[in-house]
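Summary for the funding panel

The consortium committed to producing paired sequence-structure records for every protein in the target list. Below we show the first two records in order, beginning with the earlier of the two.
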Amino acid sequence: MKNIGFLSFGHWTPSPHSRTQSARDALLQSIDLAVAAEELGLDGAYFRVHHFARQLASPFPLLAAVGARTSRIEIGTGVIDMRYENPGYFAEDAGAADLISGSRLQLGISRGSPEQVIEGYRYFGYHPAEGESDADMGRRHAEVALGMLEGEGFAEPNPRPMFPNPPGLLRLEPSSAGLRQRIWWGAGSNATAVWAAQHGMHLMSSTLKDDESGEPLHIQQAKQIRAFRQEWARQDHGFAPRVSVSRSIIPLVSDQDRAYFLGQRESRDTFGHIDEKTRAVFGRSYTAEPDVLVEQLATDEAIREADTLLVTVPNQLGVDYNAQLLANILEHVAAPLQWR
């Protein structure tokens, strides 16, 4: 059995070929797709966060709006780049959005990924400390935010406050109980997966990973997941770990599907450098007729290891198309593979 959700990058472009031509379109359609996904019986609505791009960016207004329009589905991110985040604002916004949703947030965070601009976090006012890398800074921001999400008081109260204070040290408000146990780390390597387990964060592994063995993505991911679970078992976090992987899955069911995606049937994993230091493997798209997809996905080791599968959606094709795509995945892929 799998938890199955969608993952949207929220692309928008003012092109006559796009059904998502503005940022407003991307935001409102994201809400509508989450509502449709809940009605279909999916388990999660997740959204990517990219700064300086024509994509979804500031996540918490969107998460709160989705939370207000839905009642059951998990709502998450994949992932928030913590290099750009003020830990205090992050904790406050996350607490508010979680309360609005009825404690359904599943927040994926990370140290970041290749950016649209050079050192974009500096435009947000954040600079690595002396001797610290930007990745170190992202992890530091994450650790501070995790502490704040614990809900314990840490700030010295003003002896002459504007409003009466409860006794003792003060915490950030609003605080949402249990949210700290619903934080995921987007890990690009085996080492950061182990680090996530040590810090009591669930594991989120996408279609892009550091190439650490030259093997296909799904095999490398499966090894990463096993390393995460082994480390988690050594800890005493008091709650069970979860693992998600994301995949592009397109069942070719209709003429419209074939018109859009027939050319992707021969997709394969690709290897290359995402920067001057990092060689990575980028996962293939699974695009084929349903019976072929079932056969291919049955051999994906990482999906077998994970409890949660996030399916990326081509959001610029519109809500109706993507809702039908998700319905086709449930009927023609998830059911035969006994994921549901």
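The next record, for a separate protein in the list, is shown here:
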Amino acid sequence: MALEVAIQMDPIETVSIHGDSSFALALEAQKRGHRLYHYLPRHLTFKDRRVTAKAAPLEVRRVEGDHFTLGERSAVDLSTMDVVLLRQDPPFDMSYITTTHVLEHIHPKTLVVNDPASVRNAPEKLFVTHFEGLMPPTLIAHDPDEIRAFRDEHKDIIVKPLFGNGGAGVFHIKPDDENLNALLELFTQFYREPVIVQRYLPEVRQGDKRVILVDGKGVGAINRVPAAGEARSNMHVGGKAVKCEMTRRDHAICEAIGPELKRLGLVFVGIDVIGDYLTEINVTSPTGIQELSRFDGIDVPAMLWDAIEAKL
């Protein structure tokens, strides 16, 4: 059965055909005969209890420099779609949150993946706090005294913005580093939210693992190894993706969080694991599936579309 699929994402011309997960999902949908439409978050409109988007018919192909064709944009009633893929990249700001409120008006009649209310309620650094025994020691606070006390206790710490992404604004503060107070002053100037502080995990030097879950089941993992002289392993800042296997601990983490992810309609999730610790749960725009396919032959797009089609 051919489905009508709208993809809310970033400009299609900017994606990497070798790394972008949304592109891989679009290719698989097209392979199955589904009809694709592309629109940007700013094309979304709510009027008279109807949700429309100025969307364009989309065709994709794995050809560098010629990877898409867009038709003419026109107003599409999203309630007539079978599926909307919520795939815009962070930042997870008020603009992003607003789109989840708007898309709630069509879900679940139109299946939105991931469920927009659950996306809104599951910021990656906060959602993980609901699962006991999986995180490293963590503090979320404004109070400089609390942050300094946490550092006195754990010595080596990571300080990062609560709603940051891609490794931006992540600082490794060592016990003898004198910049903590100045850093907190800087964060106060740029962010209204508390900061998140965690005990530094030296295992990050061996990599920050991205584990992919489809409808609550762990299906595979890649490792992201930081560049020399870098505490961050995000590929946006020079981390290198390498092949790895899921460990017994990775499977245990997936089994602990998987039922809740499934209950919340979080079909496509990427979690970050350093050593034995779960550090983030990414439900907004997970990446890593193309690397997983190249390393291990695991076809996550096919698994995801199987899961989506089963829900319909």
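Regarding this second record: The chain has a mean pLDDT of 94. Residues 125-129+203-311 form a domain with the D-amino Acid Aminotransferase; Chain A, domain 1 fold (CATH 3.30.470.20).
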